[in-house]
Design a protein that fits this description.
There is one protein chain. The protein has 335 residues and is an alpha/beta fold. It contains eleven helices and ten strands. Helix 2 packs across helix 3 (107-118) and helix 4 (151-167) crosses helix 5. The longest helix has 17 residues, at 151-167. It is globular and about 80 Å long.
Amino acid sequence: MSRAPHSAAYPALRLRRTRASAWSRSLHAEHRIGPQDFLWPLFVTEGTGVEEPIASLLGVSRWSVDGIVARAKEARDAGIPCLALFPNTQAERRSDDGKEALNPDNLMCRAIRAIKDAVPDIGILTDVALDPYTAHGQDGLLDASGYVVNDATVEVLIAQSLNQAAAGADIIAPSDMMDGRVGAIRAALEQDGHHNVQIMAYAAKYASAFYGPFRDAVGSRGLLKGDKKNYQMDPANGAEALREVALDLAEGADSVMVKPGLPYLDIVARVKDAFDVPVFAYQVSGEYAMIEASAAAGAGDRDALVLETLMAFKRAGCSGVLTYHALHAARLLNG
């Protein structure tokens, strides 16, 4: 057998060697994903035995409390450690001051208690913001000009957080982007004896175009007047995200979140590099909808798209991902 001539520059190291077989690719993988990396967002609605498919979120539904309990059991059985709950508050329970958020028997609190009674070993993350409860769809209280006021809103968020913690929430996740709310909520939780209730701060939440289907899911899209740009972050800014994260950590956040996900992987990586703390990302409704639309159009394989995007979050530095694909991905990975 004749040998091909080699020059001095011929590669001694071939990186393809470790890619040549499946066992070797597995052995050399730098990152892995599993069901333990997922938090599953679920939408709660009133009634019993209710499932309401969300047209703009193909495959996602609102569930009544009994249905949410059934989803919690599915999550536990699939190895998903935590659920993220979002209520679809009835129009007659919405008000300008969002007072339903403080009702100890509101939809969110009833869902928390029901899950904890049936599946006590699964974690529950609760969203803290007023947009599911306000008649105007904003995340806080408005002044006469329609501006979302900061400090008065924070006082309501404190009461909302205590209400959810008392119901059994494990992680309080302020998504409102008001200044100073993490420190105020942490102090209130400590004073009220909720020492082990975590805070996952939506530290870098951008005023994004990717939230549309979520607003359909919680019933706020048609209510929202204007936009949220005076409190959510400008998509043009990166360094500002590091300032937001630094403030939330200094105020007592146990972990931080970047939202949306895929369009902001650079922010995830910068936060992880700068602070080396648990960083989570929310693969938001618009991202989910794009994957589903792409698969439905035959532009890509759904399973491959789901797993590749979730791996991207881990590679960027995420400890975990909030994703509507959580159960599907967990079942794929569980074989």
